[in-house]
Design goal:
- The structure is a homodimer.
- Chain A is an alpha/beta fold.
- Chain A has three domains: about 170 residues, Molybdenum Cofactor Biosythetic Enzyme, Chain A; about 80 residues, 2-Layer Sandwich (Alpha-Beta Plaits), CATH 3.30.70; about 150 residues, CinA-like (Maf protein, Alpha-Beta Complex).
- Chain A contains 13 helices and 17 strands.
- Chain A has a six-stranded mixed sheet, with helices on both faces. In chain A, strands 14-13-15-16-17 form a five-stranded mixed sheet, sandwiched between helices.
- The longest helix of chain A is centred in the last third of the chain and has 20 residues.
């Protein structure tokens, strides 16, 4: 069977400017892990003749054709009919599926509507893929050495169905292969500087493949090796990943894809240390990220969103003279904010953010000027100055990342 | 010319699990405003024969075929060649484009690489669409009553090029039409309850079209009317929007698509009032949202992320007895948090959030239990209890929205 796939997402809503097909990202990830490449993705409305033609066309291109969506109970849901037409097979009624749907309704003390019987039709010869999270069953059809898979559109139904029913079937059909990955995250570089640094290493290899993705202050590097044997894949990853890790140095904060707030949590927990924060221009973004990690109450005490000078003075004990002399966007005030936060909360470490996120500057400092302060048990409080690029959301994203990274560096005693 | 379009996004990176085509959302929005529907979207790799076949196929389906990406200078960039093959035309060298690219390099004190000459080739008969933000020119080709448009992939190049060069040309070709929209946002409903409520109104109309999108505590309803004359479009919107607004009642918080934090900012500014917050389980999410609005320092004083009982006591003055008696996740503590926040900051209003975001409960209250407290100048502090569905990110999203909405309701003196 040819090892490539086409994914067809069915649903008129995905042809509007508000919705996008994201199921294909999950499916692609799963297929890639099996050594299958996605050759084309098609997004198409609830239009039976157009979909029928698309399925026929896809079978000319790909060994695996996966359709997502269009399996609901209404007239709009045409995937079953279109696939049957494309394969020149009949649709047959499955009493078994019908019973399962009725049972599902009964468990919720509701009666199955007549219209739901449409969901009990399967393409002749299809294996039914039971959906434990909804009324739309999946279908697996082998056809002239190719596979056609029908999956329900809601991600919460599609994902378990694909993982539990499709991956094992595909694994049996496909030649044995292993995929091993490394997923680095890096801060303190621009994407182009990072690429200039590591391209000489990774461009020499097509296996592992390298993908680089950038967010403010957070660049991800994915390495993926695909081999017949696990040890070959691991050897290739070490061969490329080793020199890359060396070049990245202390900018590398994650080797497993975990975000900085998770890394920080582990470091704090290992040291039985606690953290508190004071945020000005980020308004709570750093606290939100830290507390997005379940169990963060083990090490996160809390924080202050000191959006006015008054709150910096009252809640953190910042000296009003300091603000008058240096403005609230200054090294001195960032330092005093961190120190005050640590004093008020009694946490082991405290970090502070103050700056100009734009679009206007309130202190005269250029938009993008950010100070991050830090206070801990060893040595006097300190503060660093940054000039962040971009608009308000980007500046706030960079500032938050810089603050979390300063804590990481101090915990690891890095420069 | 048929008023439908197919968009083909070219680039192997968009067939990985890490990248998605989003240019088509912008183009769809622009096309819809011209009365053009997108019938299919195709995502395809840098594969010349596959792309050639796809362009031929698209011309059978759609009057307007738009290709994005694949116009760079390298061998991988095959869009020009594939379109020429599909239309059975030649590629011709344009000295004018070549000069423009050379000039672009010269302005940056760099010499044009020989490879960039590939970008000076255009499909015979194409109009060149000058790209002021990059070296890849767009192309506009009329072919047997249809239009084929080639656009560069980077959004910063594609968007101005489409807006400035393509929209005016399409407007000339297409029959005159106006599109008028309403964009409602609603809170306090589930998507299915909301749909059951308003479907009897909107399903009677295909024009305006209705789209419903749901996020935690925030459902968007888009109405779009398309008519020959502006007054007809406005009349249709009023005919459908009027009864919908009536049914939504006080759950409707935005008529122009603005998020709740922007609506709140306007309400506070109109009243020359200020707001402060205390957050427990949301960890800063509400503050982050409020301060995402430029100029929020006019009305937002700041807040407290009181993640521990100690901080609720020390920073907000919550009575330790109250926590001992009712736990930190209680109506009593939510109320005391709001009151303490208002007292400490001197703001006109204060809102608080405390609850169990999961995955574990720390107080015994079921995961999803959220209390929102409110304090203001009129009447005693109060608190409301909510049971929020979903996982940690959804619960935190719902809780934040409920807190902002309570402030809106109190400012507007709604129940």
């Amino acid at each position: 069977m040819p090892q490539d796939a086409e994914i067809i997402a069915v649903g008129s809503e995905m042809l509007t400017s508000q919705r996008i097909d994201t199921n294909s990202l999950y499916i692609t990830d799963q297929l890639n892990a099996l050594g299958v490449e996605v050759r084309r993705k098609l997004i198409i409305g609830d239009d039976r003749p157009l979909l029928t033609a698309a399925v026929q066309d896809a079978l000319n291109h790909a060994g695996i054709v996966i359709l997502t969506g269009g399996l609901g109970p209404t007239e709009d849901d045409v995937t079953r009919e279109a696939v049957a037409s494309a394969l020149r097979r009949e649709l047959v009624f499955s009493q078994e599926i019908c019973d399962a749907i009725e049972e599902r309704f009964r468990r919720r003390q509701r009666k199955m509507a007549e219209i739901n019987k449409r969901q009990a039709f399967v393409v002749e010869g299809a294996e039914v893929l039971p959906n434990t999270n909804g009324t739309a069953s999946g279908q697996w059809i082998e056809h002239q050495g190719r596979v056609v898979i029908l999956l329900p559109g809601p991600p919460g139904e599609l994902k378990p169905l694909f993982a539990n029913e499709c991956v094992p079937r595909l694994t049996r059909l496909l030649p044995a292969q292993v995929i091993r990955t490394r997923f680095y995250r890096v801060t303190g570089f621009t994407e182009s500087d990072l690429d200039a640094l590591i391209a000489p290493v990774y461009t020499k290899y097509t296996n592992p493949s390298t993908t680089i993705l950038a967010a403010p202050g957070d660049i991800q590097i994915h390495l993926r090796a695909r081999c017949g044997a696990e040890e070959d894949a691991e050897r290739l990853l070490a061969e490329v990943g080793g020199p890359i890790e060396e070049l990245l140095g202390t900018h590398l904060f994650s080797r497993n894809g975990d975000p900085l707030e998770a890394i920080l949590g582990t470091l704090l927990r290992e040291r039985s240390a606690t953290l508190s924060i004071a945020e000005s221009c980020t308004g709570g973004m750093a606290g939100e990220r830290i507390t997005s990690i379940p169990g963060s109450s083990d090490y996160f005490v809390g924080g202050f969103v000191t959006y006015t000078d008054r709150m910096k003075i009252d809640s953190l004990g910042v000296d009003p003279e300091l603000i008058a002399q240096h403005t609230a966007v200054s090294k001195e005030v960032a330092r005093a904010m961190a120190e005050g936060t640590r004093n008020r909360t009694g946490s082991t470490f405290a970090v502070s953010i103050t700056g100009e996120a734009g679009p206007e500057s309130s202190t005269g400092a250029p938009v993008g000027t950010i100070f991050v302060g830090f206070a801990g048990p060893d040595g006097p409080p300190e503060a660093l100055r940054f000039a962040m690029p971009g608009d308000r959301p980007r500046i706030r994203g960079f500032a938050t990342q810089a603050a979390l990274d300063l804590v990481r560096r101090r915990l690891l005693k890095l420069d």
